[in-house]
Amino acid sequence: MKRFADKLVLLALVAQSALAADWPQWRGPERTGHVPPGEVVPVSLPQEPKVTWRIKVGDGLSSPVIAAGKVFYSDAQEGQETLHALEAGSGKELWRVPIAPLFKDNQTAAAPRCTPVVDGDRVYAQSCTGEFKCLDVSSGKQLWQTSFTRDFGAVFIGEKGNAQGATRHGYNAAPVVDGDLIFATVGSTNGASVVGFEKKTGKMIWKSQNDVPAYAAPIVATIEGRKQLVVFTAEGVIGLELKEGKLLWRGPLKTTFGRHITTPVIFENMVVVSSHELGLIGIHVAKEGDGFKASEQWRKKESAINISSPVAAGQYLYGLGPQRNLICVDIKTGKEMWSKEGYISTSAGNASAAFIVMDKNILTLTDGGQLVMFAADCMEFKEISNVQVCGKTWCNPAYADGKLYLRDGRELYCVELIR
C-alpha cells in the first residue's frame, strides 16, 4: 500500500513539473509575465549563455510559446502567415501550416503579429486580417476556423482614412482560454466586439459590446471576488462576465488612433493600462450594489508606456517609460518610484522591452537583444547581471525548464539560463 501511495505522489510531482514547464501563451501561463511558483529560475545570468539550438526564421513580430515539449511560432513564408511546430529539445520542425495571406502596412515588414495559444491538444492562430484557426498540436491538421470579417461583419481597412486600433494595423491581440471557452477581440461594432467561442468546436457561445478593437491582449482575472475577462479596447477598458459576456464595468478611454497596446495589469482591485497619448492609467474597480463601478484613480503622462506590456511584482509595476527608461510605479497611487536610462537602443517612440518576473527578480529583454536581470525592488534600480543574446527584437520570450525561447529579426533561439 505504501509503495502504491509513493507511486501516486511521484506521478503527481511529475505531472506538476510538466505543467510548470509550459509557457503556452502570450506572457506565460496566467498571461501576467510571471514564471509559475515552484519553477526553478536563475538568480543571475550566465556570462556566456549556451545556445542549445538556433534556426533561421522569416519575418515575424509574434512571440514563441512552448507546451508539451513543442515550440510554436509564426513567421512569413511564401506570402503567408505561417504557424510552425518544433521539437523543443532540438529545434527540429515537426510541421508548418499557412494561416492567411500576409498583411503589409508602413510600420513594419509584412509578417504575423499575434502570438499563438496552446491549450491541451490544440493550438490557436489568429492572423492580422482576422482569420482565426484551431489546429491539432500533433499534426497541424485544421479542426475549425472562423473569420472576423466574413462571419461577424468586422471591418478591416488597414492604413486608410480614420481607421483605429486593430482595423488599422491588424488583429494583434492573442485570444485567451478559460475553461471550455476561448475569447477573442473580434472587433465587430455590431454587437460582437468580443466573442466567446467553444474552444473545441468554434461555436459562438456569446458576443458582446460594440467597441472598435485595439491591439492589447485580453486577460482573465479575479477582481473583487469576481472572475472576469478584462479587455483594453480602442474605446476603453471593460470587464465582461465569462459565461454570457455581460458587461460588468467600463472605464472609457479614447485616443486619436486607438493605439492601445498594453495587456492590462491587475493588482487587487486596480487595473493598469497605458497609452502613449494619455499616459499610464490606474482604474479602480469596486462593487456597487449588484454590479461594479470603474473609476480612474490616477493618470501619469510622465510614465506613459507605448508598445511594451509591463509586469507587476506585488503592488509595484515595472515597465518601459516614454524616455527609453526602465520605470517602477506604485500601482495604488501612480507614483513613479524610480527611473533608469541607458538600456534601450531605439528611438523613444518605438522603444521596446519585454519583462518576466522570476521570483524576486525581473528579467528584461531589450529591443537591442540584451538580457538584463534586476531586482524587483521598489526603492532603487539594482542590476544583477546582463548579457547580449540576440539581434534587434520586439519578442516577449517564453521561459520553461531553465531555457529561454526568443527570436530576433532572423533567427529563433533556445538559450540555457540554468546549467
Total discrete domains: 1
The CATH superfamily name is YVTN repeat-like/Quinoprotein amine dehydrogenase
CATH C-level name: Mainly Beta
| SS summary, helix count | 3
Going by CATH, the architecture would be: 7 Propeller
Assign an overall shape: globular
Biggest beta-sheet profile: 4 strands, antiparallel
- What is the name of the CATH topology? Methylamine Dehydrogenase, Chain H
Number of extended strands: 32
Strand content: 35-45%
The N- and C-terminal alpha carbons lie at a distance of: 38 Å
Q: Structural class of the helices, strands and pairings?
A: mainly beta
Reading side by side through the largest sheet, how are the strands ordered?
1-32-31-30
Based on CA atoms alone, the radius of gyration comes out at 20 Å
Low-pLDDT stretches: 4-20
The residue-averaged pLDDT reads 93
Domain Pyrrolo-quinoline quinone repeat: 81-339
InterPro entries: PQQ_b-propeller_rpt, PQQ_rpt_dom, Quinoprotein_ADH-like_sf, WD40/YVTN_repeat-like_dom_sf
Signal peptide: 1-20
Organism: Pedosphaera parvula (strain Ellin514)
